[in-house]
Structure formats: C-alpha cells, structure tokens
C-alpha cells in the first residue's frame, strides 16, 4: 500500500513541486492550503506523514501541529522560510520529526521523508497477523490479500484486542474495561452486540473465528 503524504502550504507552486517529487517516487499525496483544510483531511483520511509550512493565514503551522498531535500521532516535517533557532526549538517541542528551511532541495526533502517513514515503520508495534489476515492498529484496518476492511472504531478495537491474544478468553467485564474504560456505565450487553457485528464483517475470513465460551466470554480461535 502506498504511503500517503499530506502537504500543507498556502503557496500552490510549493505544493505542486513537492507533489511532483513524491508522485515520482510512488507516494500518494493530499494537499491543503490552510491549517483548517489539513485538519479536515486528517479527520477523513489516513495520513502517514505531514509536511507543514509555518507561515499560513488564520492557523499557522505551529497551531496546526499542536492540534494534529492532540488526536493523531503522525510524523511531521516542518518546511518553512523561518530559520531562527527559536522557531526550530518551538517546532521540536511540539513533537515534529524534522525541520527543513526554504529554499530547499526536493531530493533532500524526499530522502528525509523516506528516512522518517522507515523509522516509524520499524518502531510500529501495532500489527497483528493471523494466518493471511493482518490487523493493522496504526491504520485501523484489516487486510486479507487484496481486500481491506474498515470497521467502526469500537468494533476494530475489540477485534484487535482479541487478535493480539489468540485463544485467550476474555470476559465481558475485561473487554469493557479495555475498550470502553473502567468508568463505562452503559448497556452491559454492548460487547455482545459488537461481537455479533464483528462476526458479520469478518466471518468470511479464513484462519480464525470469534468464539463464545459459554459462561466465560469470548476469544479468537485460530484454526490449526
């Protein structure tokens, strides 16, 4: 699957230049000319890395990164004409991964993108594989050969928790605490409802099945 890069800059020619080089290397690219547009993209699409300018109207790059990091931990490269140490320090304090000043060498920027993506890939511990089925906790999706399945968030989290611990039985109470939190005071059969939906969505996949252990709870049973 192609890595998707979000390019956020109010200058169209900068976005087009970066897109040209990323396209050439096989990356998928999303563009935003404002911070608000970038946040809309992040809410609706999976992004692997963001390249963010600082000096933009309404919401500057610092504000954007601060908001991004509140709900998505994705790598960020700041690309800007601001070269002062104070700006760099502010960026790194917000959790950015790299800081590139304009004018920039597109090939160097591309190399930095690849290096950061590789580092994040190595550090990722959110992949679980059962036979030929992959549960991807970073992208919140389940893959089987050419098929990609996107479940509602709580369904995915529940399926992922079971998949991480194949053949281990979880009680309803344990699953509610892990997925909904200790303070959950809603419908006590919500786990049953979610398990039913998971079976409907994943029942056709080979290699495992979600099993009810009567009187105890649920588990993912891996076929031998």
Automatic annotation (TrEMBL):
Domain of life: Bacteria
Stretches of the chain forming a coiled coil according to its record: none
InterPro entries listed in its UniProt record: CheY-like_superfamily, OmpR/PhoB-type_DNA-bd, Sig_transdc_resp-reg_receiver, WalR-like, WH-like_DNA-bd_sf
4-aspartylphosphate: residues bearing it: 53
Short name of one Pfam family: Trans_reg_C
CDD domains, sorted: REC_OmpR, trans_reg_C
DNA-binding region of this protein: 125-222
GO BP of this protein: regulation of DNA-templated transcription
Locations listed in the record: Cytoplasm
Major subcellular site: cytoplasm
One term of GO molecular function: phosphorelay response regulator activity
Cellular component annotations (GO), alphabetically ordered: cytosol; protein-DNA complex
Residue ranges annotated for the Response regulatory domain, each copy included: 4-117
Function: Member of the two-component regulatory system HssS/HssR involved in intracellular heme homeostasis and tempering of staphylococcal virulence. Phosphorylated HssR binds to a direct repeat sequence within hrtAB promoter and activates the expression of hrtAB, an efflux pump, in response to extracellular heme, hemin, hemoglobin or blood.
Stated name of the protein: Heme response regulator HssR
């Amino acid at each position: 699957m192609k890595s998707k890069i979000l390019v956020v800059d109010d200058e169209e020619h900068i976005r087009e230049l970066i897109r040209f080089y990323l396209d050439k290397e096989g990356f998928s690219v999303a563009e935003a000319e404002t911070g608000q547009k970038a946040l809309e993209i992040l809410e609706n699409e999976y992004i692997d890395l963001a390249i963010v300018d600082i000096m933009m109207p309404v919401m500057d790059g610092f504000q954007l990164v601060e908001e991004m990091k509140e709900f998505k931990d994705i790598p960020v490269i700041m690309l800007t004409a601001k070269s002062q140490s104070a700006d760099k320090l502010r960026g790194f304090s917000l959790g950015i991964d790299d800081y590139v000043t304009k004018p920039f060498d597109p090939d160097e920027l591309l190399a930095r993108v690849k290096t950061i993506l590789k580092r994040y890939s190595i550090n990722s511990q959110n992949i679980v594989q059962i036979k030929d089925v992959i549960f991807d906790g970073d992208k919140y999706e389940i893959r089987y050969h050419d098929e990609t399945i996107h479940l509602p968030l709580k369904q995915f989290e529940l399926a992922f928790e079971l998949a991480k611990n194949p053949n281990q039985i979880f009680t309803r109470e344990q699953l509610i605490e892990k997925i909904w939190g200790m303070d959950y005071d809603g419908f006590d059969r919500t786990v049953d409802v979610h398990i039913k939906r998971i079976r409907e969505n994943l029942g056709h996949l080979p290699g495992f099945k979600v099993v009810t252990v009567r009187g105890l709870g649920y588990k993912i049973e891996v076929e031998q």
